[in-house]
Amino acid sequence: MRGALGGPRVLLRRLREVMAEPVSAQERLDKIVVLIAANMVAEVCSVYVLRVDGTLELYATEGLNRQAVHLTVMRSDEGLVGLVATEASPINLSDAQAHPAFSYRPETGEEIYRSFLGVPILRAGNTLGVLVVQNRARRTYSEEEVEALQTTAMVLAEMIASGELTSLAQPGAEPAVRRPVHVSGAALTDAIALGHVVLHEPRVVITNFIADDVQKELRRLGVAIETLRAELDLMLESGEVAEGGEHRDVLEAYRMFAHDRGWVHKLEEAVLTGLTAEAAVERVQSDTRARMLRQTDPYLRERLHDFDDLAHRLQRQLLGYDHAPARDKLPEHAIIVARSMGPAALLDYDRNRLRGLIIEEGGPNSHVAIVARALGIAAVGEVPNATGLVDPGDGIIVDGVTGDVHVRPTPDMEAAYVERVRLRARRQLQYLSLRDRPSVTKDGQPITLMINAGLPVDLPHIAETGAAGIGLFRTELQFMVAAQFPRTSEQLALYRNVLDAAGGKPVVFRTLDIGGDKVLPYMRNYEEENPALGWRAIRLGLDRPGLLRSQVRAMLRAASGRELRIMFPMVAMVSEFDEAKGLVERELTHLRRHGHRLPERVEVGTMLEVPSLLFQLDELLERTDFLSVGSNDLLQFMFAADRGNARVANRFDPLSVPVLRVFRLIVERANAHGKSVTLCGELASKPIGALALIAVGFRAFSVLPSAVGPVKAMLLDLDAGKVERLVASLMALPLGSASVRDKLTAFAEAEGLTL
């Protein structure tokens, strides 16, 4: 395309000059539409901006009636302009008035113009407005002209996103880019936070859109693409992925996209319009994201993440950025927003400044959600396009109780949530008043309430909540936050500190539960098709006995003269427990031989989280000192439903008859052998879950520190005998509706229990 001012590259250079001029926002817009119209030999060029109320407002025009600027407002689904905004796709018509969506606005004087080209003004796949050119003569604009207008729209998107146009808007009609946004996801934690956005993998901010030397930019793009391809080839050729599996399929898909000539051609075309290489990647990916977000095919929508990751890598390659931001420099009240995250990545952040987490993936039972709960931060998962809705520094509210997220909240919304936080604080004070009351039901059944912990910051919760001890200390968290493998002396110091903080109350140390999505940055990570069912926990410990022995030795030395409880995770066979217990005996012998003071008493137990143990209970209980039921893994393995997969994680209700039958069986066999049994999964941390567990015979729980108050308040008003009889009658009925949740909720209401 060649226009009056010499084509798109000349236009972009002139736009750069206009963007740098010290003029008002309106003057800048007016100059931009004149430049575009002249360059495209168009008689009309207009800019429509999407407002916070969802309407489109005419912000600038060359060719239409200037008096219509800021007066012409239309619904976002009205007319051809609305159609461009809704579909986020260009519309190119030789006779616009013949189109069924055409809407005539007499104040603009556009009735004399026939041809129409409109393109969406996009940023991160979100529509911010519409850019239009028109001519009297009937003509179809060329592909080059469409491409040039899209490129220009990208520059306008950054102008809108900068907030420069806000000064031109009436109150309540500001540009939508800064509008308050409310989205909902899966509630992950019982907490609420107000803070500011920090992107886990921040978008590359493009500051230079316009190329000085197009051929140089093409060469930069070519080199970056070749480097990206080489990186992917290297990953695929590495020993960790060479043998195949789902992870290899993902990398093969990435490589296919990176070698796709259509994708590369679009990037090159964008550069040829006058963009820098990194701006071209932004342009093409924004268009791709806008299209794929509007797809109904779930497979195509899932591929959006692949394209996002690929474009992100390519931009960082072009600009020489690292693939991860520094995480130790957080603002106060930081809310992390991420597409996906593992628990180790979350633990990298400064916990003194971290207040919340929002992720596009990850359900309530994912490991990152469990760590978020352990840290006591507000978290919401399964939020579509979360990273595309926010900018770094945006004000944001995370409601981990309801799953609501408010981006750039209004003052009224913010005030309402501040009041909610105050009310919750007052309620916590009420729970605090129960701290020293014995944990006994109304009909005299004692219930032991302990807490889950894993970091030194958790230790004060023992005294704060009045908990009976620590029923699950996750030792892997120390390893996950360390830059290198913790020395035995460091482990010894932590375990001694934990026992000191407990003040004689019992502490159950779970040996390392790493593997799956809990990886250590300094250990080789073996890719597996089904990591939850793979080489993790006790399997890794028995295969690497030096690792397990050093940890057990540190525990034994830390507990000198005191009681010690050690628990092994992910045991699937009695023989595995025997082997692990034998290792403890050998370490005791070693310490005795070298004159170390031994613990006063050592109890060795196991997590019951693999269904195979249900058929070895009697043999296991003859050997173990105690059992702890890990309901999170046990339920995911029972139902073959990955707790990190949003599509199936909530498909089965844990308060269902099959689950309660399993729990009752465990309690009955433990009682028959005279062994204690505790449930330390997430289920017990909700009052309704604890109610169901009491009904099938559990009398000991290890819960989140924040759950001690609500669970205790419920059980103090509970007649345990009544709920036992109710659930026993429900479990005797044909399955029909397997869940007993509704019946338990009705029971609680009738009994005046707070759930």
TrEMBL record:
One example of a Gene Ontology biological process annotation: phosphoenolpyruvate-dependent sugar phosphotransferase system
Gene Ontology terms: cellular component: cytoplasm
Similarity field: Belongs to the PEP-utilizing enzyme family.
Catalytic activity as recorded in UniProt: L-histidyl-[protein] + phosphoenolpyruvate = N(pros)-phospho-L-histidyl-[protein] + pyruvate
Localization, UniProt: Cytoplasm
Enzyme class: transferase
Keywords, ordered alphabetically: Cytoplasm, Kinase, Magnesium, Metal-binding, Phosphotransferase system, Pyruvate, Sugar transport, Transferase, Transport
Stored InterPro entries: GAF, GAF-like_dom_sf, PEP-util_enz_mobile_dom, PEP-utilizing_PTS_enzyme, PEP_util_C, Phosphohistidine_dom_sf, PTS_EI-like, PTS_EIN
Protein name per its UniProtKB record: phosphoenolpyruvate--protein phosphotransferase
Gene Ontology MF terms: kinase activity; metal ion binding; phosphoenolpyruvate-protein phosphotransferase activity
Residue span(s) of domain GAF: 24-170
Iron as UniProt keyword: no
EC number: 2.7.3.9
Species in which this protein is naturally found: Rhodoplanes roseus
